[in-house]
Task: inverse folding
């Protein structure tokens, strides 16, 4: 599951994607960095356009094609990679509208009694990466939307959650992006969990628990020291 992430170093993230795709990418108008990204936020996403890869501003929360005319359509943050390629809900987007969602990290929570303790997962050294995403086009007043694929957790994420986002590093970003179906073996390789030894985790301030909160405090250490978890 991935319902909150951070993209606060946008220049670095776009530079990584520019290298990966051998194409200059810039932040779309109306988007920018956020420390606490959640559903409905307009965020930069890289998709294939008429002239090749391009950065666009899309709203997080994939709206299924059959709900576009609904007064209150569902906003789906995630799709399971193991079933997304075959489920009617997602399969056309997986085949024709695979995108890259730039990020610096994602949040998961450990519950202690009634307290939710947030943790930030990043790549080693804080290198930007991309989530494997899918998107749906705009329709009337409904903007274009995107969702993030999830997979089984690696040993680092498993103590906090039974799912993790599909993470694409620079070397494989170009292989995921596209508007034509991927062969099943390639899809399976790209959507497997990233090796735990390529990632790191640390507790962060409970300020991030409120989805309306924004700013560097979201990434600061917690107010009190927390007991260490048995991360793999």
Result:
């Amino acid at each position: 599951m991935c319902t909150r992430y951070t993209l606060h170093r946008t220049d670095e993230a776009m530079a990584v994607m520019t290298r990966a795709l051998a194409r200059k990418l810039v932040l779309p108008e109306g988007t920018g960095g956020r420390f606490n990204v959640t559903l409905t936020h307009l965020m930069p996403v890289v998709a294939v356009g008429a002239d090749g890869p391009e950065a666009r501003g899309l709203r997080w929360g994939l709206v299924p094609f059959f709900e576009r005319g609904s007064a209150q359509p569902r906003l789906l943050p995630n799709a399971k990679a193991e079933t997304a390629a075959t489920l009617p809900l997602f399969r056309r987007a997986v085949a024709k509208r695979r995108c890259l969602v730039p990020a610096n990290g994602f949040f998961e929570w450990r519950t202690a009694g009634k307290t939710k303790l947030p943790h930030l997962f990043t790549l080693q050294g804080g290198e930007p990466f991309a989530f494997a995403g899918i998107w749906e086009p705009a329709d009337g007043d409904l903007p274009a939307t995107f969702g993030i694929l999830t997979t089984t957790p690696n040993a680092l994420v498993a103590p906090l959650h039974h799912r993790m986002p599909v993470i694409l590093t620079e070397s494989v970003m170009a292989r995921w992006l596209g508007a034509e179906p991927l062969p099943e073996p390639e899809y399976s390789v790209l959507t497997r969990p990233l090796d735990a030894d390529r990632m790191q985790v640390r507790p962060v301030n409970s300020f991030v628990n409120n989805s309306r909160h924004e700013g560097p405090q979201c990434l600061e250490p917690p107010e009190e020291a927390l007991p260490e978890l048995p991360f793999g």
Notes: The mean pLDDT is 93.
